[in-house]
Amino acid sequence: MIQTISTTEFNPCYAGEFITESYYHELVENFNAKFPTEVTSVPISKSVIKAALDGNSVSGIKFMNGLEDSHDPSSRILVLIPGNFTTNNTLPNSIINKSGFLTNNGTAISLERTWEVLFNHVLHYKTLDPDMHYTKINRGSFLGRERLLTLLNDSNCEDFIYHFGYVIEENLPYKPIIQPANGLKMFVEQSIPCPGSALCPDTTSVPCAITYIATSFAGKESENQLSVLRSFRDKLLQNNTSGIAIEKYYTISASLIEAINTRENKEAIFRDIYNKYLKPSVEQLNRNDEASAYLLFTEVIDHLTNEYLFQ
């Protein structure tokens, strides 16, 4: 059975709902049956959640699925990425901290390690469901600060259990259910799934940065260019090293668009990205020069991250 939330007048701070004990059991039992070899829960402390919520600009937390080792399902961790108040299709944009992020066990990891553990999850999930496209794999879930603070304050507990659930009707694994470790029957779920990309390449909603720029400046050529770039993306995702770079792009894409859109010269910035990086990448790929295209891709992502996200 699916429990739904109303998304009218959406406020990201209130993402999530308390669910019944029977629905909690249904979700976790579904997960156990679907993925018998997988870790079913991880511990997380009140102090870690509160630390990730620190700051007035934080609307909630994206609990992102990760693995220390893509070949070891027992190495399951969560990376806690704060979300801001800018929502795209109800999913807040990520706040990218230059120093990295906290994990569920309280360890701080660097940005580069973040992209690695997130992509390890993707690689591992492909072994569980080979037919699932890389961009459709559930990367994590967002829960709002007010819902989380209610759980933390009302449960009178310092430690919590983050369970993994599975919604059969949606083929949606890794649905979170957070429960106090003291056995109190409070179960927070109804989170917002974090897609593999910022809804890329779905131009009917909020596109990723590449789609956004290409459709703005390439005119009639945009669909051909995007087709070339998406084929290249799918090839990169099958490689452990280049896939990490794509995972980084997925995670920061919407935040980059938001940051650049605050600049007075935003149109000039986007046009420069298209002329200096995007268009030449397509030309290189059309010449089968994938190595140069990949170098240009990593160069522009590093440049944009340093220029616009770390100010």
**Percentage of β-strand residues:** 15-25%
Cα-based radius of gyration, to the nearest Å? 20 Å
List the total number of helices. Answer: 9
Shape summary: globular
- The beta-strand count equals 12
Low-confidence stretches: 1-8, 196-205
Sheet with the most strands, sense and barrel status: 7 strands, antiparallel
Distance between the termini: 45 Å
Query: How much helicity do the residues have?
Result: 40-55%
In total, how many domains does the architecture comprise? 2
Average pLDDT value? 86
Topology:
Elements: E1 17-18, H1 21-34, E2 41-45, H2 46-52, E3 60-67, E4 76-88, E5 91-94, E6 101-103, E7 108-109, H3 111-128, E8 140-144, H4 145-155, E9 159-167, E10 172-180, E11 188-189, E12 192-194, H5 209-217, H6 222-236, H7 240-261, H8 266-286, H9 290-309
Antiparallel strand pairs: 1-11, 2-9, 3-4, 3-8, 4-5, 4-6, 6-7, 8-12, 9-10
Describe this structure in words.
- By secondary structure, the protein is of the alpha+beta class.
- The protein has two domains: 12-194, no CATH class; 209-309.
- It is built from nine helices and twelve strands.
- It has helices spanning 21-34, 46-52, 111-128, 145-155, 209-217, 222-236, 240-261, 266-286, 290-309; strands spanning 17-18, 41-45, 60-67, 76-88, 91-94, 101-103, 108-109, 140-144, 159-167, 172-180, 188-189, 192-194.
- Strands 3, 4, 5, 6, 7, 8 and 12 form a seven-stranded antiparallel β-sheet that branches. Strands 2-9-10 form a three-stranded antiparallel β-sheet.
- Helix 3 (111-128) packs across helix 7.
- The longest helix has 22 residues, at 240-261.
- It is globular, with a radius of gyration of 20 Å.
- 41% of the residues are buried.
- Residues 1-8 and 196-205 have low confidence and may be disordered.
